[in-house]
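so my prof wants the structure for this chain in the tokens format not the other one, which i didnt know existed until like an hour ago. anyway here's the sequence
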Amino acid sequence: MSPWVFGTRELGRRPGAMKSSTRTIPAPAEPERLGLETIWVPAGSPVELEVRLESVSEGIYVSGTAHAALEGECARCLDPLTDGITVDLAELFAFPDSVTDETTDADELPRVGDEQVDVEQIVRDALVLELPLSPLCRPDCPGLCVECGEKWADLAPDHGHETLDPRWAALRERLPAD
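here's what i got, hopefully its the right format
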């Protein structure tokens, strides 16, 4: 059985019955890396789950948190970076043959299957939705010089590149050098 799967047999269909669980699960490996191109949860790194499963009239309500380490690269200077992320989880898993099951499409809401709920997809969705689209090594990262590609943090304060209007380029050849 997958470590992402939680049994619900002891909860049954008794609204109000609940149980809590804490697990540390290794993050999925390639090709389904958990994240974006610039920042991700490293494959095999621990994802810490603290969840509460509660039986409600229409299914099992799963709530809690997931915490994971992050690796990536700064969107401005391309330096490697590490960070952590904690996300809240909240999802209803519909019971088979419930009104919710009958009135929602299969891809709209997860389902309780064989008295079990698989939280991998809700954890994956919550983590990916909270990742920064442009992660930064620090908030004031100056990035790279657009002309030479060097890091602004490593360049002299007077760093610059002379840009000559192409219309004047022919005239420059005729003038003496300074």
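also thought this was worth mentioning. The radius of gyration is 26 Å.
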